[in-house]
């Protein structure tokens, strides 16, 4: 099947209605995709991810659809930080995002094929699929600089490796334009006091004129704070983010975002895992998926 057809097939099945609810995830395992292979692929993810992020829910749906489309059985295992791993067995594993070290060790000791997607660290002993976060942030930052912005800021909620890489991409870009007076700063916000931190940031006389947030969801908070402070987007503050969620097209003004290609991530991940399942001796790989810029009305030339 051609890659374009792969994408179309997966996109028709990738979103279930319940993923729109940020506070719960109810897996629905009934699909019309026939299972032709008796081997089982287990997807393991931290409960915190699927409770707090639409992005993770969407990616889980896409991975499940792709596993079943290729004819394998699928099971989702949601784990907690404090849990002690119990006995389980699968023919291949997909680890998604951060996982407690005890689970990583447990799965590794099974000597079964595994692929880690968007993990917290880069391991030489696993195959991994990651987004080229530095490249995406670099390109979005360069777009802002080309529009005349000199005070840039990156806002993140945690020190997840992906967010560190995204800030690094902004730093790499700014370093090329330092002689023109371009600067960037890192702003760490807590999930419970994000609005307070952003209010202080935007109340400064030397506040940034361009904001890049680690996720679309955090950009929505930026919109709220800016509105409360009567700061107009994009006339007085340009905003961009990562993930390119559906709501980003619907808010006003529509949000510019670095599109993280979830469909491509799902297809490449399952193909890589199946490759290891069919040939346990093939070398480990790090595959980086290149994101794309989606420019909408939330960024404009500096005021």
Briefly summarize what is shown.
This protein is of the alpha/beta class and 303 residues long. It has helices at residues 3-11, 47-52, 54-69, 101-109, 133-146, 161-176, 194-202, 216-228, 247-250, 262-278, and strands spanning 40-46, 73-79, 92-96, 114-117, 127-131, 151-156, 183-188, 210-213, 238-242, 256-259, 286-289, 292-294.
Global shape: elongated
Ends apart, CA distance between termini: 49 Å
Query: Strand tally, please?
Result: 12
Instruction: Strand order, main sheet: write it out.
Output: 2-1-3-4-5-11
Task: Please state the CA-atom Rg, rounded to the nearest Å.
Answer: 20 Å
SSE order: HEHHEEHEEHEHEHEHEHEHEE
Averaged pLDDT:
86
Structural class: alpha/beta
Q: With helices defined by DSSP (H or I, 4 residues minimum), what is the helix count? A: 10
Description:
This protein is α/β, with parallel strands linked by helices. The protein has 10 helices and 12 strands. The chain has helices at residues 3-11, 47-52, 54-69, 101-109, 133-146, 161-176, 194-202, 216-228, 247-250, 262-278; strands spanning 40-46, 73-79, 92-96, 114-117, 127-131, 151-156, 183-188, 210-213, 238-242, 256-259, 286-289, 292-294. The chain has a 6-stranded parallel beta sheet, with helices on both faces. A 6-stranded mixed beta sheet has the order 7-6-8-9-10-12, sandwiched between helices. The longest helix is centred in the last third of the chain and has 17 residues, at 262-278. The radius of gyration is 20 Å and the shape is elongated. The model is unreliable at 1-31 (pLDDT under 50).
């Amino acid at each position: 099947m051609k890659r374009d057809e792969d994408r179309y097939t997966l996109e028709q099945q990738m979103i279930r209605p319940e993923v729109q609810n940020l506070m719960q995830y109810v897996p629905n395992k009934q699909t019309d995709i026939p299972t032709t292979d008796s081997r089982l692929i287990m997807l393991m993810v931290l409960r915190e991810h699927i409770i707090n992020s639409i992005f993770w829910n969407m990616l889980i749906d896409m991975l499940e659809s792709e596993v079943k489309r290729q004819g394998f059985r699928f099971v989702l295992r949601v784990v907690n930080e404090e849990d002690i791993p119990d006995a389980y067995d699968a023919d291949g594993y997909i680890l998604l995002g951060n996982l407690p070290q005890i689970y990583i060790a447990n799965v590794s000791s099974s000597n079964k094929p595994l692929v880690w997607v968007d993990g917290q660290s880069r391991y030489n002993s696993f195959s991994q699929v990651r987004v080229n976060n530095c490249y995406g942030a670099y390109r979005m930052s360069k777009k802002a600089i080309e529009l005349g912005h000199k005070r840039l800021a990156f806002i993140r909620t945690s020190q997840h490796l992906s967010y560190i890489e995204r800030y690094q991409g902004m730093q790499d870009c700014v370093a090329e334009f330092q002689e023109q007076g371009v600067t960037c700063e890192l702003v760490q916000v807590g999930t419970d006091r994000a609005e307070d931190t952003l209010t202080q940031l935007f109340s400064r006389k030397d506040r940034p004129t361009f904001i890049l947030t680690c996720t679309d969801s955090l950009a929505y908070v930026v919109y709220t704070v800016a509105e409360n402070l009567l700061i107009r987007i994009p006339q007085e503050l340009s905003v961009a983010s990562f993930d390119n969620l559906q709501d980003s097209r619907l808010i006003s003004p529509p949000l510019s975002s670095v599109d993280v290609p979830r469909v491509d991530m799902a297809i490449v991940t399952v193909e890589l895992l199946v490759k290891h399942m069919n040939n346990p001796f093939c070398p480990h790989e790090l595959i980086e998926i290149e994101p794309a810029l989606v420019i909408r009305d939330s960024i404009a030339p500096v005021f």
